[in-house]
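[Q] Does anyone have a clean structure-token version of this?
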Amino acid sequence: MAQKYDIYHANDLNTLPQAVLCAKIFRRKPLIYDSHEVQTSRTGYDSRIYGISEKWLLRFTDVCIHENHTRASYIEKKYHFYPKVVHNYADVFQPDPCNQIDLHDLLDIPKEEPILLYQGGVQMGRGLDKLIQAIPFFQRGVVVILGDGRIKEDLQQQAKAMYLDKRIRFLPKVPVTELLYYTQNAYLGFQLLNNVCFNHYSASSNKLFEYIMCQVPVIGADFPEIKKVIQEEKIGLTVDSHSPVAIAQAVNRLLGNPALRDELSHHCIQAREKYNWNHEKKLFLEIYEELGDGYD
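[A] Here you go.
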């Protein structure tokens, strides 16, 4: 409270009450509410109190930001205003040759086996149980799950029960500054969110853009924002993420057609010029400039 700031910025609902106190009660400063999630329809947030508190607290905000237009439309229907949209794209990746990571060596995977990568939170609704169910149908390859979360132990037990020890590896999460050095080892990357809530259904997803940045073709859920990027930019395949059979068919299509995989990878080069934070942050900075001008 001793510090004075020109603008207050709340990332998600859990920080908004404190921001309202600082910006509007103890100070008279502009307040940005930057919601990276759909607070009223997400896993683990079932109480009505989240919607009630968000609706009440929004009256104190000067600007509300959401990460894509599907979510912005949802907010418009719920609260009768259309928020600003700033996508959460990945930073431009310029790999340092001195920091290379070889996942084949690290995980003792034979060089001829392609790495089929999932990176991110190991949580319910990410389609990881369906991914493991699909592994026996893959023509070849080793699945690598990179990340931590509540269901990681359950997934390890699932894989063990299915005798998949040689077909799957688990790695703990790594610092974000190192993540893409792991990503670039992959033959393909998974984004298999399940439709368990609107937050999942409407997601753009960080990992989608991280795969693009590393020229890794994506097998992604057939949801609006994910589908839009994958199909318009031709950087992967969309599937019914609830179906192990559909997942396996897409994987085998890319495993059996290296030329198609390379074509999709090549399309990522152009896509990453569009879907990157260097480009998107201009919109973010414009919001700050407009807000600052309005309070001069």
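[Q] Thanks! Anything notable?
[A] The first strand starts at residue 8 and ends at 11.
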